[in-house]
Design brief:
By secondary structure, the protein is an alpha/beta fold. About 40% of the residues lie in helices and about 20% in strands. It has an eight-stranded parallel beta sheet. β2 (about 40-45), α3 and β3 (about 65) form a beta-alpha-beta unit.
C-alpha cells in the first residue's frame, strides 16, 4: 500500500473529532513529502536534531509535533518549531520549557504524559504526581506554556482487554482533571493515545489524537 493510500484509508476511518499525527521519526524527508502531497499536515518526530533538520527541508505549513522523550538541553532544537509537545513527563521538564518559552517570547502547547502501561521503561507521571503538579500550577501562573491535555502509551501486548483498560484509565483521568480544574486549564482539550497497533481501541475510549507511523510509512528506513 502506498503512503497516499494509507493516509486516505485512515482519514476515512477516523472520526472527524480525531486528529491524525503521522509519525515520521526515522523516515527521510522524501517520504514525508509523499504524505504531505497526499494532504497530511501533522507529523510527529522524536529526536530533536532530526526534527530541526526536517523543518528546514520541508514546507513551512507543516504542523510538527514532538512525541519523544525530551531532554532539557535540547529545547532549542524543538520549542521554536513545534505546534505541540506530547511528551512532558516530569515537573522539571515542564518548568524548563516555561523558562525557555518565557525568555524567548514563545507560547508552547504541551500534553502531560501519564504512565499507564505495565512496562516500567515507559515514561510519565503517576496519577498522584499528576494531581500534585496540577494543584501546584493552579495556584500560580506558568509563563509561556499552555497545558492542552494528556498523552499515554498502552502496554505493548496482544491483550486487547488490558489495552482497553489502560486507555480507559487515561480517559477517566482526563475527565477528572477537566472537572476538578475547570477554567484554570482553559486549553485542556486533547487526549493523545493510540498508535498503529491499538488506535481503534483508543478512539473508542475517547482519543482525540492518534500517533500512527508504521501503517503509513512502513518499517523505519534508518
Amino acid at each position: 500500500m502506498s503512503i497516499a493510500q494509507a493516509i486516505k484509508e485512515l482519514k476515512n476511518e477516523l472520526p472527524s473529532t480525531v486528529k491524525l499525527v503521522a509519525v515520521s521519526k526515522f523516515h527521510p524527508s522524501e517520504l514525508i513529502r509523499e504524505a504531505y502531497d497526499a494532504g497530511q499536515r501533522i507529523f510527529g518526530e522524536s529526536r530533536p536534531q532530526e526534527l530541526y533538520k526536517k523543518t528546514g527541508e520541508l514546507p513551512s505549513d507543516i504542523e510538527w509535533h514532538f512525541i519523544g522523550h525530551l531532554q532539557t538541553n535540547k529545547l532549542k532544537f524543538v520549542l521554536p518549531y513545534v505546534s505541540l509537545i506530547h511528551s512532558v513527563d516530569s515537573k522539571r521538564l515542564l518548568y524548563e520549557i516555561s523558562r525557555y518559552a518565557g525568555s524567548h517570547n514563545l507560547s508552547v502547547r504541551v500534553l502531560l504524559e501519564v504512565h499507564i502501561a505495565t512496562e516500567q521503561t515507559k515514561q510519565g507521571f503517576s496519577k498522584e504526581e499528576l494531581f500534585e503538579l496540577l494543584d501546584e500550577i493552579s495556584r500560580q501562573t506558568l509563563p509561556g506554556v499552555k497545558i492542552c491535555g494528556l498523552m499515554g502509551m498502552a502496554s505493548f501486548v496482544d491483550d486487547k482487554v488490558q489495552i482497553r483498560g489502560e486507555f480507559e484509565t487515561l480517559a477517566s483521568l482526563f475527565s477528572q482533571i477537566k472537572e476538578k480544574y475547570g477554567d484554570s486549564l482553559a486549553y485542556f482539550t486533547e487526549l493523545s493515545m493510540g498508535m498503529s497497533e491499538d488506535y481503534p481501541v483508543a478512539v473508542e475510549c475517547g482519543s482525540t489524537m492518534v500517533r500512527i507511523g508504521t501503517r503509513i510509512f512502513g518499517a523505519r528506513t534508518y
